[in-house]
Amino acid sequence: MDPRGLQARADELMEEFHRLRDGVGELQQQLRTIEVVVHSDDRLVTATLGPRGQLVRLELDPRIYRDPNSRELASKITDTIQKGARQVADRTLELCRPFLPEDDVRTQLDGDLDTFFTRLDNDIFGGDAFR
């Protein structure tokens, strides 16, 4: 590639870097404000989850007392919260996609630090640093 072509490519890469860097603040704000509201299929259970998939609020419709099956209610609550946590993870992936490889985001969301550090090790040091 000729020097002008290299300079043009370097300029493109710098513009992309600045665009990504400038967007990180907005990304952080969006990630901090993620909130998901989910309902059970029968709408008797409503769960609100925060940015890390944590339960923020749980609402139980008074009609739950018509059926005294506590195991079914517990299962319904658990399923609803898990559905919400998946939605939070999906939203996080969607927001991070322009900035980070999806596999890296998934690895962090799953708490799989071994895979994350192995990938980092391979990318930066050729595979020897974290062993």
Overview of this protein structure:
It comes from Cryptosporangium aurantiacum. Keywords: DNA-binding. GO terms for molecular function: DNA binding. This is Conserved DNA-binding protein YbaB. The chain has 131 residues and is mainly alpha-helical. Helix content is 60%, strand content 11%. It folds into two domains: 3-101, Nucleoid-associated protein YbaB-like domain (Ybab, Chain: A, 2-Layer Sandwich); 102-131, no CATH class. The chain has a three-stranded antiparallel sheet with strand order 1-2-3, with helices on one face. β1 (36-39) and β2 form a beta hairpin. α2 (70-96) packs antiparallel against α3. 8% of the residues are buried. The mean pLDDT is 85.
Structure summary:
This protein has 131 residues and is mainly alpha-helical. The protein contains four helices and three strands, in the order αβββααα.
Beta-strand percentage?
5-15%
- The count of β-strands is 3
CATH class of the largest domain: Alpha Beta
List low-pLDDT spans.
Answer: none
Organism: Cryptosporangium aurantiacum
Protein name: Conserved DNA-binding protein YbaB
GO molecular function, one term: DNA binding
InterPro entries: YbaB-like_sf (IPR036894), YbaB/EbfC (IPR004401)
Please give the structural blueprint.
Layout: H1 3-32, E1 36-39, E2 45-49, E3 55-60, H2 70-96, H3 102-109, H4 113-125
Antiparallel strand pairs: 1-2, 2-3
Keywords:
three-stranded antiparallel β-sheet; Ybab, Chain: A; 131 residues; mainly alpha; single chain; 3 strands; 2 domains; 4 helices
